[in-house]
Design a protein that fits this description.
- By secondary structure, the chain is α/β, with parallel strands linked by helices.
- It has a single domain (2-79), classed as Protein-Tyrosine Phosphatase, Chain A, CATH 3.90.190.10.
- It has three helices and four strands.
- The strands form two sheets. A two-stranded parallel ribbon has the order 1-4. A two-stranded parallel sheet has the order 2-3.
- The model is unreliable at 84-96 (pLDDT under 50).
- This is Dual specificity protein phosphatase.
- One of its GO terms (cellular component) is cytoplasm.
Length: 96
Amino acid sequence: MYLSREIARDRHRLKAMGITHILNAAEGERNSVNTGEQFYSRCQIQYYGITAEDIPSFDLSQHFYSSADVIESILRKPESAPSSPQYFTLRFSKRL
């Protein structure tokens, strides 16, 4: 798992990094990361979006369980699961 802001718009870099799935926690038109399933389809990256504003006052907690379900379903697929549990890492490309 890799958390990012700007890199989310760089399909070539995502593919080079081995990213297979995107969970966009700021999908929408206002104060958001304006990408979507179409944006990633050409590079065969699976997409899941949460309609939310990327502002401090937005209550993102309402989406925690559905997001966890998506991540869990991805990890259950043999082709998507990390080769070993210790390899599953969480990285930040920029302070959030």
